[in-house]
Write a structure and sequence with these properties.
alpha/beta, single chain, Rossmann fold, 271 residues, ten-stranded mixed sheet, 10 strands
């Protein structure tokens, strides 16, 4: 893609300071700023979890982007879009919201540490919400970088449902993998993610509804994979190598000194 890489869409499960510092939240905060400083346009999205203080972080609804319904499992779910700014980075963050999925105060587990029963539905809603909002923004990304398990339905949808949309015609998907892979989903992932013309043949890894299999499906529809952590499951690393995808290995030193931003930027431009 080289010099034509001008616009990068970041789709994150976490961004600091809206959520506490973590491996993913810190990259969600500092990577987009670094890529913007390298003269690219950026947009960032994350879920509007109920633990995010709207008043403190000055979130407000973007009426022109809200108001759409997304049908999941035959139920209409209103899509609400909010936005906030990280002024020190001159960076806007868009939040995907829905009362049923994101009002609760926890992120993906209840107070007893039990994985929410509707987490797969939440991931489907988030993926479709991001793609539909980017269409409304009429902002065509060259790279879409997905970070965190809740983003991992998006590569499938981009390549199988939205591929003919002019907004996404030249978009390449980069998938960052971390040690956040869930265990078992309560829902049937294979039936839940079906949308548009997606068939069983498109999702061969989703026979079992596990986090590993969701990540494999995301990798299958990605154009490049970044190992964002040393805690990525060995099975996932092996799978990505079998797919012969461009792969950027984890480098602890570059994460510490910030040089990973240049490495990621070069990786985008190599696709």
């Amino acid at each position: 893609m080289g010099d034509s890489t001008k616009r990068v869409l970041f789709v994150n499960s976490e961004i600091f300071p809206y959520l506490p510092e973590s491996e993913i939240a810190n990259i969600g905060r500092y990577l987009p700023q670094g890529i913007q400083e390298r003269r690219k346009e950026i947009r960032s999205f994350m879920p509007r979890y109920g633990c995010i203080n709207e008043r403190k972080n000055q979130l407000h609804e973007v009426i022109r982007l809200s108001g759409m319904n997304i049908v999941i499992d035959d139920v209409d779910r209103p899509l609400v879009i909010k936005v906030a700014s990280i002024s020190s980075a001159r960076m806007q963050v868009y939040f995907i919201d829905n009362e049923d999925y994101f009002k609760r105060k926890q992120i993906d587990r209840d107070d007893d540490g039990v994985f929410f029963k509707d987490n797969a539905e939440r991931a489907v809603f988030f993926a479709r919400g991001v793609l539909e909002t980017v269409k409304k923004l009429r902002w065509a990304p060259d790279i879409i970088h997905c970070q965190g398990w809740i983003t991992q339905v998006l590569p499938l949808y981009l390549k199988k449902v939205y591929k003919d949309d002019p907004i996404f015609a030249s978009s390449k998907i980069v998938l960052s993998l971390y040690g956040d892979t869930p265990g078992q989903f309560d829902e049937n992932l294979g039936s839940l993610v079906k949308f548009g013309d997606i068939t069983d043949a498109d999702i061969p890894d989703l026979g079992e509804s596990t986090g590993i299999n969701l990540a494999k499906t995301a990798a299958r529809y990605s154009d490049g994979v970044i190992l964002g952590s040393e805690d990525v499951a060995p099975e996932l690393k092996e799978y990505c190598k079998e797919l012969s995808l461009p792969l950027l290995e984890y480098n602890e030193e570059s994460m510490k000194d910030g040089s990973y931003i240049d490495a990621y930027n070069n990786f985008y431009e190599s696709l």
